[in-house]
Amino acid sequence: MPPIPARALLAGTALLAALLPVPARAERFCGQPRMQLDANGEPITSDLGIEAALARPASMQVCASGYFAEKCGDHESAHLIYDKCIAAGYAGAMIWKALLLEQGIGVAPDPARATALLRQAAESGSDGYATVAKVHYASALQLGRGVARDEAAAREWFRRAADEGDPDAAEFLRTGHHTAERDVTGRGFGVATEAVEGQRLAPVARPAGMPLAPTAAMLAALVAVAGAGAWWQARRGARAAAGGGSRGAAGGGAGGGGTRNGDAREVRA
């Protein structure tokens, strides 16, 4: 699967899994029409629905149907589709299933199995998904979520993901914080170090020997020029509006149009 859908879909899965309530009684197959077969066993209704995906072998389209089933609340179908796709080696399904196992959506929470799936996806070599899985697996190692805590190993997995171009991994290595995962309040993973935060907030030093008074005077002059320009533009706009209103009034008198006279009255007012 391509890299861009990997990041977009996984970000949506993680955030929605954390923020959306699980439907108490979700409708099976998301309310789609039931699949019907002809005498030869071939579908005579759309074979793109969730029920059809359950009956078909794993493919990118089938795995994506599992994602759709999850978003509309059909957790039973989603897990069945994910399991089939995982057995066929689809790394995206491994990550989607892992995120649901972490949250306990549709099944009992199972952090250990979730983390094992994340590592499997991280080692899959799948374009795009393997890189994203490295970030999630590294995060699990950093916290000891479903696996023994190992910050050194976590940093190594973050480094691998960063080497593959993942911006969240690079951000974590730089600051100790990333937003590939968010909690229910929208906060990202980890806490940025005070040193980095201090660098971000540190004022820029004024070059030695540079007097402050001329700089302030220059800024004041720029503000004055900007204000004069704004005043001139407003004055020109008012003149143009007044001229248009006069022409509209004249045209209204010649043609007897009530709308133009009304416009002219509004301008004069």
Mean pLDDT rating: 74
Q: Give the number of domains.
A: 2
CATH class of the largest domain, please? Mainly Alpha
Cross-sheet strand order for the largest sheet = 1-2
Looking at this structure, what is the CATH superfamily of the largest domain? Tetratricopeptide repeat domain
Number of E-state strands:
2
End-to-end C-alpha gap = 64 Å
Structural class: mainly alpha
- Main beta sheet: strand number and arrangement? 2 strands, antiparallel
The general outline is: globular
Low-confidence stretches: 1-5, 11-25, 195-207, 246-269
What is the annotated CATH architecture of the largest domain?
Alpha Horseshoe
Radius of gyration: 30 Å
Tally of helical runs: 12
Please name the CATH topology of the largest domain.
Answer: Serine Threonine Protein Phosphatase 5, Tetratricopeptide repeat
How much helical structure, as a percent, in the residues?
Answer: 55-70%
From N to C, what is the helix and strand string? HHHHHHHHHEEHHH
Strand content: under 5%
Structural account:
It holds the Pfam family Sel1. Residues 241-269 are annotated as: Disordered. Residues 1-26 form the signal peptide. Keywords: Membrane, Signal, Transmembrane, Transmembrane helix. The chain has 269 residues and is mainly alpha-helical. Helix content is 64%, strand content 1%. The protein has a two-stranded antiparallel ribbon. The termini are far apart. Residues 1-5, 11-25, 195-207 and 246-269 have low confidence and may be disordered.
